[in-house]
Write a structure and sequence with these properties.
By secondary structure, the protein is mainly β. It contains three helices and 47 strands. Strand 1 (about 1-5) and strand 2 (about 5) form a beta hairpin.
């Protein structure tokens, strides 16, 4: 067809309708054949695709690359597959012909052609994938380079997914895979180490125990990277103030640390991805104050027990923790997960953790990550032996489906000081009381200082529905809290302390909550809602309990005390 800047000739297509000379007329798709034409004589750097399933497309390199990434065709009858290496199927007009094949023929061609073919059979998806051709020299002046004219077949590059293999590990990606089916590993499973792009068994190493403390320095880190033979350190493993090392290697076979693991104050450390795939036990694990540490992906895949404390704190750039600590089930003392300013997700982290014997600190995270969410977090955590501090995560906006296995907090639960939190849904629904066992003194329960201006519209939905008691129940100073719905439906009393729902949004409503009926409050009682009356499930309240304590109900209709409490109730 003719274009403004010149005329291009196409290889004849027997069943193709003619296109209008007018560039404004709607394009007519070809039927049964596909041609890819690189145009050099009209619009410099343009690409034309004519297809039985696509209309005429044209554009610059950016549009072409987008098309290239999206060009997937299901291989059924009358759909298209490209056969053979590219340099054998381009003609003098640099046109690529694509044949029509049946489903079985396409599958066979895709499976058997080991050359630079543009097709690949996707057995898991039962389809044949067509990759359009990328042209190395295509471009315009705006990209800083021009294509040559004419384009030779050698300038076509194949987009075939090569799919290397890897026994006992994970293969490299397509860009690093030299040939389809070749074994070339990127990383190894626990119990294996990487050697010449293959995964070798750590069991081959004997007498590889390091006695006492192992302090990693620049010189011996290079040796560890080459060998990776250390399987046990009887003392501490100390990686501290290690300059010039961006990625930690050399510990693929390390299974046990008799003392502590300390990774601290390393000025250039950027990643711990897959760093300790075989490590199962340590006393303390401390990863802290590494100013450039960004990524910990699959870092401790086999770690199951920490026999003292775990500290993951003060790593300002740490944002990726994908699938880390996936096997960790128990921490014998406390977990400090705090002061990681760039943190934006904990999805897939600590998914097996069921027990923290002492205190859990989840605080001051994500200060530089606007709008981050906590979704299905800590799905198997059942017990926190002492207090839990879930607080000061300034930019956290949503908590959904989190801490759903947690049944006991040994002392106080703090959910507070998160000024952007606007959604709290389906969380903490197995928590029975803030105490370890029936008969023990309860700890307190605080929800305070959530959703402050400009945040508005905080709703607590479907949460805390097994919680029966607490020493103190304080839900106050949540400026944007406007709705409590389907929550706290087992709560009946406080043990020695106050019950306070006050100084929240002036429009606060309580719906389908506290269904078991609040019965006794040992300290003062203060409830303020924006409704015209208090939901009738509060009619179980014993107003004569703790007569010396303050008793105050506030609704949109007025304020009430013990003497006229019944007037505050909805009919």
């Amino acid at each position: 067809r003719a274009e403004m800047a010149g005329r291009v000739e196409m290889a004849p297509l027997s069943d193709a309708p003619m296109l209008s000379e007018s560039s404004d007329e709607a394009p007519v798709p070809f039927k049964g054949k596909t041609a890819l034409l690189i145009v050099s004589t009209c619009l410099v750097g343009s690409v034309f695709i004519l297809s039985g399933r696509r209309s005429l497309l044209r554009g610059d390199r950016e549009a072409f690359e987008r098309l290239d990434a999206e060009a997937h065709f299901d291989c059924h009858k009358n759909h298209f597959c490209k056969l053979g290496p590219n340099d054998q199927t381009t003609d003098a007009q640099r046109t690529v012909q694509i044949a029509v094949l049946s489903h079985d023929a396409c599958k066979n061609a895709c499976s058997t052609n080991s050359g630079c073919s543009a097709t690949e059979w996707r057995s898991s998806e039962q389809r044949c994938e067509l990759h359009t051709m990328a042209v190395q020299a295509l471009g315009t002046e705006s990209y800083g380079y021009m294509h040559t004219d004419p384009l030779s077949p050698a300038e076509f590059t194949c987009c075939l997914k090569r799919d290397c293999s890897c026994q006992h590990g994970h293969p490299v990606g397509d860009a690093q895979c030299p040939e389809k089916g070749q074994e070339k590993c990127e990383r190894c499973d626990p119990g294996y180490y990487l050697h010449s792009h293959m995964c070798k068994a750590c069991s081959a190493f004997t007498n590889s125990v390091h006695s006492g403390n192992l302090v990693v320095t620049q010189s011996n880190h290079a040796d560890l990277t080459v060998t990776g033979k250390v399987t046990e350190v009887t003392g501490d493993l100390i990686i501290e103030n290690l300059a010039g090392v961006a990625k930690l290697d050399g510990f693929s076979c390390l299974a046990k640390i008799g003392g502590d693991l300390l990774i601290s104050n390393n000025p250039d450390l950027e990643g711990l991805d897959y760093a300790f795939p075989s490590l199962e036990t340590a006393v303390n694990v401390r990863i802290q104050q590494n100013p450039k540490l960004k990524s910990m992906i699959h870092s401790f895949a086999a770690l199951s027990t920490v026999s003292d404390n775990m500290l993951l704190q003060n790593n300002d750039l740490l944002s990726h923790l994908d699938d880390s600590f996936g096997s960790l089930s128990s921490i014998a003392d406390s977990l400090y997960f705090q002061n990681n300013a760039a943190l934006s997700s904990v999805d897939g982290v600590f998914v097996s953790l069921s027990n923290i014997e002492d205190t859990f600190y989840f605080q001051n995270n994500g200060d530089e990550s606007a709008g981050w969410k906590l979704t299905n977090a800590f799905p198997n955590l059942a017990k926190v032996g002492d207090s839990m501090f879930f607080q000061n995560n300034e930019h956290l906006t949503e908590v959904t489906g989190s801490f759903q296995a947690l049944t006991h907090v040994g002392d106080t639960l703090y959910v507070q000081n998160m000024e952007h939190l606007a959604k709290f849904t389906g969380s903490f629904n197995k928590l029975k009381a803030t105490s370890l066992a029936p008969g023990e003194t309860s700890g307190s329960f605080y929800i305070r200082n959530l959703c402050e201006s400009p945040c508005s519209g905080l709703e607590i939905q479907g949460s805390f529905n097994s919680m029966m008691t607490a020493d103190k129940f304080i839900m106050s100073s949540n400026e944007g809290l406007r709705l409590i719905t389907s929550s706290f439906n087992a709560f009946t009393h406080t043990e020695g302390g106050h019950f306070d729902i006050s100084t929240n949004s002036a429009s606060l409503a309580i719906e389908d909550s506290f269904a078991a009926g609040l019965q006794t409050v040992d300290g003062y009682l203060k409830i303020e809602v924006g409704m015209s009356c208090l939901p009738k499930q509060f009619n179980t309240l014993n107003v004569n309990h703790a007569p010396g304590e303050e008793f105050s109900i506030g609704t949109a209709a007025g304020t009430y005390d013990r003497s006229n409490f019944t007037e505050a109730l909805c009919p």
